[in-house]
Amino acid sequence: MASFVDRVVLHVAAGDGGHGVASVKREKFKPLGGPDGGNGGRGGSVVLRVDPQATTLLDYHHHPHRKAPNGKPGAGDERNGADGEDLVLPVPEGTVVKAADGEVLADLVGQHAEFVIARGGRGGLGNKALASPRRKAPGFALLGEPGDARDVVLELKSLADVALIGFPSAGKSSLVSVLSAAKPKIADYPFTTLVPNLGVVVAGDERFTVADVPGLIPGAHQGKGLGLEFLRHVERCSVLVHVIDCATLEPGRDPMTDLDVIEEELAQYVPDDSLGGRPLGERTRIVVLNKADVPEARELAEMVRPDLEARGLEVFVVSAVARTGLRELTFAMARHVAEHRKEIEVVEQPRIVLRPKAVDDSGFRVVKEMTPDGEVFRVDGERPTRWVRQTDFSNDEAVGYLADRLARAGVEEALFKAGAVAGATVVIGPRDNAVVFDWEPTMSAGAELLTGPRGTDLRLEEGSRPTRDQKRSEYADRRAAKTAARDELATERRAGHWTTAADEDDVE
């Protein structure tokens, strides 16, 4: 079973917001208590947080599906639902969060650094919060919004100052074990190291981290061996140390050839530009000719040393077994690390750029599209989409409230400008779960008609108080109408169109 995983695909889903509730206060001696429905709670978010105790992404490899709890629905008596608890996922420092298309979303560096990868949905408002002077007793509530759901890629890139690179069995693990307190696995066969090993080295006043990167072979940048999986752990290192085995007996292997092969692999590997990493070919180089405790290896090292120095490389002949030449190597690495740290000490403060919303920015747009079913008008925008998600379409009053909100936001006017006419097909929401309806521009929303106490309707009331002259005119019109109606009935009676009971008695 694998014990180290540095790349996983994580499927996360935030919690949905709780629904608001429509409720009327029922209390003794208070027949018109009014609305008292509470709001729904917010859904829990999914948060990645750096944990010093985490060293691998193995847990997410075995359990890649994670979901935060939902918010609780509201209740009567103005009781709001509880918020869903955030789901915090611990990750090692140096974890890079990428979208499914490769876009870098976050680089988690620093103690307790965190990133919200999926936000919980907002809770719906109850009818208590929706009440207003114009809408005193709403008979509806808003639904909770669904939480975000997305797939992300987590990649672990070790935070080390120095990387030891080279062919398998070159002695990198042995070098780390004598330079630091790290205890990597050491054996006399290739690919003993299957995971990057980190060790802390102290040289004078400098303290830095050394990473033992698993062995590279030709074609590592294309995925051969373990190179492609672990070259990402070299991206953050400022100093690259070539560890060359001078005692190898493999045919076709010699220090100069080994160096050229590894350099070619480093040049072919493309680091992540979005993280600001420099190409590996621009990093500081140090060459370590290892296994000098073997007489033949020391002779070979002394022979090729002038050629390597002629290339401008700093060369050290060491033996991890005999522990010779290590002090000079340690202080050389410390010197280069200190120089790099001084270069990045002066960090330019980021400029704060304010991008105010444009005066004519409505927050949405209407797009006319042609589909196999005919012409449709699509309304794209965060607010209209959110309002649609919050609407209970089984409640006519809630639908009227949605129409009010869309009209106030200017959606109806925008549809007119886009060429929509009565009966046109309008689509609001995401393409995979949109609301489709036939547009009626003159439709009364309904919710705006509820202006008084329960049982009243604006359509049954006069909009303004009539004057005395208006009252007299209306009274005269009513009297004239009644007189005309009586005259018409009398005429019909005389013509014999209908008779009364008294008329029938006269006939008898």
UniProtKB/TrEMBL annotation:
Top-rank taxon of the source lineage equals Bacteria
Per its record, what are the GO molecular function terms? GTP binding; GTPase activity; magnesium ion binding
Q: What is the annotated localization of this protein?
A: Cytoplasm
Location of the OCT domain = 356-441
Specify which residues bind Mg(2+) according to the UniProt entry for this protein.
S173, T193
- InterPro entries noted in UniProt: G_OBG, GTP-bd, GTP-bd_Obg/CgtA, GTP-bd_prot_GTP1/OBG_C_sf, GTP1-OBG_CS, GTP1_OBG_dom, GTP1_OBG_dom_sf, OBG_GTPase
Required co-factors: Mg(2+)
* Top-level EC class as recorded in UniProt: hydrolase
Pfam families under this entry?
Answer: DUF1967, GTP1_OBG, MMR_HSR1
Q: Where is the Obg domain?
A: 2-159
List the EC numbers from the record.
3.6.5.-
**Amino acids binding GTP:** 166-173, 191-195, 212-215, 290-293, 319-321
Biased composition of type Basic and acidic residues is found at: 456-495
Xref: Gene3D superfamilies: GTP-binding protein OBG, C-terminal domain, GTP1/OBG domain, P-loop containing nucleotide triphosphate hydrolases
Record-level GO BP terms: ribosome biogenesis
Q: Where is this region: Disordered?
A: 57-85, 447-508
Return the GO cellular component terms, semicolon-separated. cytoplasm
Subunit description: Monomer.
Protein family according to the UniProt entry: Belongs to the TRAFAC class OBG-HflX-like GTPase superfamily. OBG GTPase family.
So what does this one do?
An essential GTPase which binds GTP, GDP and possibly (p)ppGpp with moderate affinity, with high nucleotide exchange rates and a fairly low GTP hydrolysis rate. Plays a role in control of the cell cycle, stress response, ribosome biogenesis and in those bacteria that undergo differentiation, in morphogenesis control.
Q: Which named protein is this?
A: GTPase Obg
Q: What is the lineage of its organism?
A: Bacteria, Bacillati, Actinomycetota, Actinomycetes, Micrococcales
